[in-house]
Amino acid sequence: MLAIEVENLRKEFRVQQNREGLKGAFRDLFKRRYNHVTAVENINFQIPKGEICGYIGENGAGKSTTIKMLTGILVPTSGKVVVNGYVPFQEREKYVKEIGVVFGQRSQLWWDIAVIESFQLLRKVYRVPEQDFKKRMDELVERLHLQEVLHRPVRKLSLGQRMRCELAASLLHNPSIVFLDEPTIGLDIVVKTEIRQFLKEMNKKYETTILLTTHDLQDIEALCSRVVMLDEGKIIYDGDLEQLKQRWGKGKEIVFHFAEAVNMQTLQQLTQGMEVKWQQDHPYEAKVWVPFEQENVSEVMRSVVSELNINDMKIIETNTDDIVREIYKSGSAETAGENHHA
Amino acid sequence: MLSAYVDMIRIRFLMMLAYRVNYFSGIIIYTLNIGAYYFLWKAIYGGNDTLAGFTVLQMTTYIAISWMARAFYFNNLDREIANEIKDGSVAVQMIRPYQYLIVKMMQGLGEGLFRLLLFSAPGMIIITFLFPIQLPTDVMTWAIFMVMIFFSFLINSQINIMVGLFAFFVENNEGLMRMKRVAVDLFSGLIIPLSFFPLWAESILRWLPFQAITFLPASVFTGRVTGQQVYDALLTQVVWFIVLILPIVFIWRKSRQRLFVQGG
Fold first, then answer.
1. Cβ of B254 under 8 Å from any chain A Cβ?
2. Are A42 and A126 part of one and the same domain?
3. Are A182 and A105 in contact (CB under 8 A)?
4. pTM value?
5. Per residue, what are the HEC states of B188-255?
6. Of A239, A273, A289, the domain-final residue
């Protein structure tokens, strides 16, 4: 069953343009000029129930706009959105009862009142029966370690505490779909890990569908089976993370520490016929670059190990950050791949 | 769902308690205002017994009750809504299964009730000692007055909501909000009762919703309006409340289309 279905979705904004100078400002008074900006340009994707999908892209790529259309906040310019069987912006009130949303940069708790008061209010807003609420609350308090913050006003919480409360607040009514817009922004590594762990378990236990946007690719690596990558309002990649890495990761690097001094020539002779690149900054240490699909890492290692005395060796995988940075820079996952093969 | 809306009132009440300084400064401002207007009107009356059908006693009562009613119906919903639109937090309101504008109304009511109970009621008692005031003795008048200031609250909040929602359409509605504030205070009869306006102005103002906020309830309270006319005044308020729903629904629908959340 599909949880989210998006077809040809498009959102345009009219942005006012301010003319320069006093004269320009005066002219703006009478005649405004507008620019049409397409934030999301005819995108298509489907997310089955129970999937955790990462939605990534540079700042301004259109991630948040998409989330806002999916949650019923924004009305799309054109195209089709169906989530949970609802058209979000048309049946907003009914629809939002079944979803949970966290905006990392925006609090949805009441600033001046104790956290527990916010939760109580949300219980009434979402019409959660007292008994279910208690059960759910106990679970969330335990899993997200909220015990000591429940009676404090939100404005006195640290960012990490607040984010855990936000997460709990969005899950009180046990939504079947959860949208997380940068849920780990600004958090330390301990809280990040906790939140990831929690999301993963929730997904397993309740089959909650999760769509999350993030700039932290470790979120994606820890959670998502699938990534949708957006650039300038268009989807440039949709598939699993492993594949993204394999297709556009450049290769692996092996670092050797030798027991004796070795020179470059010896090394190159060892891997003769292989398309690898050696680099040596030190007589006892050398790095070899093994491109994907061209050479086999174990073969390279075998030919070195069989001839030379090794103290230590280390395989360095291409970092997802590097891959994604590369794709962002080139603007398309396709061309990034081609560049590499060329 | 209703209990959620009622809770909004309660929470706003609690929040008001958290910011007590505002509350105390309010008491001082209102007392000063009533005092200033009392002496001003005393000077205007001079040796006259009545002006525009008001006796001095009625006038003093009118001023005192108008300001006390204002404490109840006044709120900053326009500013709150405009700010939520400008900083984008209105987005958070849209992901909740409730009506944003009703929630706002309830928050305004929580604020109004807070001021009515902790501000107007004790304030009124103090004022009866300070100035010569004639309070109605008829329980019915009190009851109708209470209903009428509730409608004052509704109509004033409706106007505030409309002005606040304009933030969707213009980048800065600060000017509009200030203009509205002056218009409400002046045209509602808070500063000068409607009967003191020139005839042509009075007849225009009688076709505007502002009189329903202060002038009508205060007229009933001071006993200037009696009998059948009391019910006409109440009916005028009800009609304005219903009529004002229409533009709000219209503006809200338009706003949903325009909703543009700041910060991508």
1. no
2. yes
3. yes
4. 0.80
5. CCCCCCHHHCCHHHHHHHCCCHHHHCCHHHHHHHCCCCCCHHHHHHHHHHHHHHHHHHHHHHHHHHHH
6. A239
Look up the CATH number of the domain holding residue A186.
3.40.50.300
- Does B7 reach chain A within 8 Å, measured CB to CB? yes
Closest CA to B103 of A124, A336, A21: A124
List A7's β-bridge partners, or say none.
A80
Q: A147 and A13: one domain?
A: yes
| Distance of alpha carbon B243 from alpha carbon A162, whole angstroms | 43
CB A128 within 8 A of CB A173: yes
Interval A250-277 mean pLDDT:
83
Is pLDDT at A331 greater than 70 in this prediction?
no
pLDDT tens digits along A120-147: 989 999 999 999 999 999 999 988 889 9
Candidates A96, A106, A113; nearest CB to B11: A113
Whether residue A337 lies inside any domain: the answer is no
Give A276's pLDDT tier (boundaries 50, 70, 90).
Answer: confident
Reduce the DSSP state of residue A11 to 3 states and report it. Answer: strand
Inside any domain, residue A35: yes
Does residue A101 share a domain with residue A46? yes
B120-149: per-residue pLDDT in tens? 888 888 888 888 888 888 898 899 999 999
∠ CA A132-A138-A144, nearest 5°, is 125
Q: Average pLDDT over chain A, rounded to whole?
A: 85
A216, A303: one domain: no
> Is A338 within the bounds of a domain?
no
Task: Please give the distance of CA B28 from its chain centroid, rounded to a whole number.
Answer: 19
Name the maximum alpha-carbon separation found in chain B: 66
| Closest by Cα among A48, A54, A1, A36 to A222 | A54
Is position A323 within any domain? no
Residues of A in contact with B18 (CB under 8 A): 112
C-alpha distance from A286 to closest chain B C-alpha (Å): 46
Regarding whether A60 and A12 lie in a shared domain, the answer is yes
Interface test with B, best of A92, A102, A162, A173 (most B CBs within 10 A): A92
Q: Could you tell me if B185 and B69 are in contact, meaning their C-beta atoms sit under 8 angstroms apart?
A: no
For B22-59, the pLDDT digits (tens) are 777 777 788 888 888 888 888 888 888 888 888 888 88
Spatial contact of A236 and A45, defined as CB atoms under 8 Å apart:
no
| Inter-residue contact A137 to A119 (CB < 8 Å) | yes
Q: Which amino acid is at B174?
A: E
Report pLDDT for A339: 41
H or E element, residue A238: strand A234-239
The band of A316, judged by pLDDT with boundaries at 50, 70 and 90, is confident
* DSSP track, A53-72: EEEEE-TTSSHHHHHHHHTT
- A212 and A129 in one domain? yes
Does residue A72 share a domain with residue A141? yes
Tally of domains in chain A: 2
The range of the structural domain enclosing residue A294 comes to: 251-316
Q: What angle do CA A183, A185, A188 make, to 5 degrees?
A: 110
Contact of A93 with chain B, judged by CB distance below 8 Å, is answered with yes
Quick check: B136 and B92 in contact, CB under 8 A?
Answer: no
The alpha-carbon gap from A298 to the nearest alpha carbon of chain B, in Å, equals: 47
